[in-house]
Amino acid sequence: MSEKTIFQKIIDREIPAELLHEDAFCVAFRDIQPQAPVHVLIVPKKLIRRVGEAVAEDRETLGALLLAAGVVAEKLGVRSTDKGFRLVINHGRDGGESVPHLHVHLLAGRELGWPPG
Ligand code: AMP
Fold first, then answer.
1. Which residues are catalytic?
2. CATH of domain 6-108
């Protein structure tokens, strides 16, 4: 079996992290290297390596990640449309993935440029 990812260790409480949200499917905590005033990672408890490798049975988990994003955005005061937020999922090298455990980045608190870098 491959070694646990850093996110699995957070989920298993082997590494401390302040959880902003937890439900049956996922946890959310702040990114250690924030790219915006609000930068939260939403991570499924089930180890799905990356979004493009999810399978049909992951449908409920994938939906839960987006629902959790709304909950976290509300909790942090950025859900209203006059503020707002962006969700990002990086897949693979060109996508900028560095941790092989699916996670949704929630970025907010400043105006985010488009197209992204
Ligand atoms: P990605 O590049 O999409 O795979 O994103 C991985 C993210 O995990 C990066 O933004 C890192 O800053 C973040 N990260 C790595 N280790 C930790 C940690 N221990 N706690 C919180 N965030 C982390």
1. 103
2. 3.30.428.10
